UniProtKB/TrEMBL annotation:
Domain HTH luxR-type: 150-215
This protein's record includes keyword Transcription regulation: yes
Protein name: DNA-binding response regulator
Organism in which the protein naturally occurs: Rhodococcus oxybenzonivorans
All copies of domain Response regulatory, residue ranges: 8-124
GO molecular function terms noted in the UniProt entry: DNA binding
Lineage: Bacteria, Bacillati, Actinomycetota, Actinomycetes, Mycobacteriales
Keyword annotations from UniProtKB, A to Z: DNA-binding, Phosphoprotein, Plasmid, Transcription, Transcription regulation
């Protein structure tokens, strides 16, 4: 039988040590190869454009753009791209957000040495990979919503507002945010004002606290 081409992987995590460890796990497998690394969500999108990977592995809490924001953008830019979330957060909210953002798997860093390789292979077979706690959460959530006749609620803020909230909380000025997102400073100010109004907050400090609670930035 002819040898199959290894799955080309882009790995995004803001900690170089984590990337090194994960890369060791993946490069040790004959059917998997890491072709590029990124230190934040925005760089992950950029590197995905250049390297055209088959699979992207994203951390959640990263500078500039979170893994969830990057997943949404990558799903929009490259429909059919396989996306895995690799995170320290055993958290139902992030788990559901990851699925909504286009991820087909959710792996905890604490068990990456055990689960990650299988999660990569499952993703390439177009099969979901969920850690056991996530499966429980998914079933419990589905049953609760079915009982109440509900659907999954929409987020309080739009994806663009979330991007701006994260950058404001990281200390970027309106001009820096405008340059990063390629929009006008006036548009940034309008979004910022809408955010304060929607969330019932008063200033940058309260926005930053909200961003920490929402998992957009690390405390």
């Amino acid at each position: 039988m002819p040898a199959t081409t290894p799955t080309r992987i882009l790995l995004a995590d803001d900690h170089a040590l984590v990337r090194r460890g994960v890369r060791l796990i993946l490069d040790n497998e004959p059917d998997l190869t890491v072709v590029a690394e990124a230190g934040d969500g925005a760089e992950a999108i950029e590197k995905a454009r250049i390297h055209r990977p088959d699979l992207v592995i994203l951390d959640i809490a990263m500078p500039r753009l979170t893994g969830l924001q990057a997943a949404r953008e990558l799903s929009r830019l490259t429909p059919g791209l396989h996306i895995l979330v690799l995170t320290m957060y055993d958290n139902e909210q992030y788990f559901f957000e990851a699925l909504k953002a286009g991820a087909c798997g959710y792996v905890l860093k604490s068990v990456a040495d055990r689960d990650l390789v299988e999660a990569c292979r499952a993703a390439m077979r177009d099969e979901p990979f969920l850690y056991p706690g996530a499966v429980t959460a998914l079933i419990r959530n589905y049953l609760a919503r079915a009982e109440q006749g509900e659907s999954i609620p929409d987020k309080a803020i739009t994806d663009r507002e979330e991007e701006i909230l994260k950058l404001v909380a990281e200390g970027h000025s309106s001009k820096e945010i405008a340059d990063l997102l390629i929009i006008s400073t006036k548009t940034v100010e309008r979004h910022r004002s809408n955010l304060l109004q929607k969330l019932g907050l008063r200033d940058r400090l309260e926005l930053t606290r909200y961003a920490i609670r929402a998992g957009l930035i690390e405390p």
